[in-house]
Predict the 3D structure of the following.
Amino acid sequence: MSNAVSARTRAVVIKADRLDSLILALRKSGYKTIGPKARDGAVVLEEIASADELPLGLVDDQQPGAYRLTKAKKPAYFDFTHGSQTWKRYLFPPKEKLWTAVKTVKGFEVQSEVDAPKYAFIGVRACELHAIQIQDKVFVEGEHTTTGYKTRRERALVVAVNCRRAGGTCFCASMNTGPTVGDGADLVLSEFTKKNTHEFLVEAGSVRGEKILAKLEGRSAKDADYKTVQKAADKTAKSMGRDMPGDAAKILADNLESPRWQDIAKRCLDCANCTLVCPTCFCSTTTDTTSLDGENAERWRSWDSCFTLDFSYIHGGAIRRDNAQRYRQWITHKLSHWFDQFGTSGCVGCGRCITWCPVGIDITAEVRAIATKT
Amino acid sequence: MVKVEGLDKLMAEHPFFQGMDEASRKTLAGCARNERFGAGDYIANEGKPAERFYFIRSGTVALEFHLPSNDGLVIETLHDGEVFGWSWMVPPYEWAYDIRAVELTRVISLEATCLRKKLKKDNALGFELYSRFVPVMAKRLSSARQQLTDMYGKS
Amino acid sequence: MTPVPFTVTKRTPELADTFTLELTPAAGGVAPSFLPGQFNMLYAFGVGEVPISISGDPAHSGTLIHTIRDVGAVTNALSRLKKGAQIGVRGPFGSAWPVVEAEGSDVVIIAGGIGLAPLRPAINHILANRTKYGRFVILYGARSPADALYVKQLQSWRGRLDTYVDVTVDHAGRDWAGNVGVVTRLIGRANFDAHHAKVFICGPEIMMRFTIKELADLGVAKDDIYVSMERNMKCAVGHCGHCQFGGHFICKDGPVFEYARIESLLQVRGL
């Protein structure tokens, strides 16, 4: 997949101080606008009411096991890459009530519930859009569909943004998931901060996006604008500090008994951070509860991680009792089995698992280590 | 009492002796006799001297432990073509458990003292016997270990 | 997918800790049809859900039949249900024993302990279509005679002139005149064509491993052997990730697998 920036059907260039008009237009159309915000030293994804709440002028320094936000030289809105949170917390919430059941004279009745706000996601990166599409394959495009996810996803409007720099742990270029935003976004933003201008190229990627675009005031897009965007994309793609070997799936499938697993186990804390920050991890568990009088019951679904000991528990004990086995499960599922299950890799190269791992385990390096130790 | 030639023929028909050369088999037949046990007969009792080596021609035997609380805990049943009674090979040459015929059972048995004498004289004969018996023991051990895991769990 | 309320129309104790429930839809009508080998998620109000194989006759699917062993909180709650109580049912889920693919071959059923329950629908189907198959062999192993499941049915299957049934137990008292020993020992004595048979195995994983080894020694091909696998299950629809075995979701790619397909996975510890 090329990194080429192709002209979309409709586009307009707006001044950066008019970014608010986009957010307002979305809110007027009934969307709950969710966007990046700086809080507690990191970028989080929360509801924002105006462009003032965006992390203007902040840039992130991400390394294995480290994350810092610092002030940038050039004040841009989207020069940070991402934080620990991902859009899955809105489409696939950490806790969701699936249904309630009420005792009746004869037995009980079940009522399912769907909580589906109309979200507009502002600032979705190329890798994040791919991650959403990967979760679509799990929850919507398979044999069974999760109604809650499907409804929230259909209602969600995606305002993507092209990255102008690579994060410290990014490797989307080698995963063919970025840095340029691909198909599937309703609107795509590209930020310019050349000379003394601060502008956004806003392109529509869907009919829904065009409707919003029509409400924005700006100048028409020129060839030079697209050239700038392409230049930034190329620079970003070239500056990534790591890459995933193209044959990662085969390497892992062929090395289930590699001694490297024990090596990783010595470092891995089983903290499950990687599964929490990963935008595609979808494992969950179900909990059944009752009211104190036992008349009402609820079933909740909540995020789970294959790193917990009881994740694989069957009568008698857990199947993956050793943390080397649990780590192997996570990485081979993500980079290898996912292909057999859903036709693509489960990884989008965002680098979060590397940044937020307390001991800085780097999956690109581990795949290489496993390949060489045979 | 059946003549040695008749016993040799019966032994040749038993799976345990497949592939054994005629000379060795005839030598062993010299220690052999034909026996039959009725249903419920005890062929051996735990702790008693193990003086014979048995080859089942037809019938069924049960290997049992006598427990204070249980008249007989059966841990294995053996059928046509199988062998039992290896305690004659290992000092102090005593039976490890009770052996009861479940139904009418016909066996060929080899007498231990006679066998031990012949094996001492002829090492090659020993090899013929032991090389057939070790796989039997290996399979028994494997089966017993599987039974030990109590894999089905208690009801 | 939400649980559908079903009414318990019959409760039959089978063993000290095992019981069978017959269920019909609370709203009337018939239960959904199922394939032999499939399972339902059974919901005990307020307690939780468990995956339980359907152990009835696929040709008479008006009622659902489930044989359940009391081993945890949910199965314990289910064990205390009386006739007339309601439980929730989601399903049927999972892959099936290849009873149609097996037509024309000998069929050997090897079950251990409660593993006979998921195989009973396959046995029912084969007996209902008996002439479509070659020799039919049922081998069953249990802990002791008191722990043997479906004894009356085993006797009636054995009573047929066209079916070979052999049973063994791990240990017994003197009042047991049958076989004592591991179930693998029954295989060599059974009469079937190893090169033209389909074998369906269900039981503890150790039993499946040794049984497969014994079959391989006899010359049964790996793609003629089918096993039923078990893993932790929560959603049963391939969305929660718990039941993964290598890249397979036991809830939808299994629980019945062709052995050749999973042989290499079974050899890796803690997969």
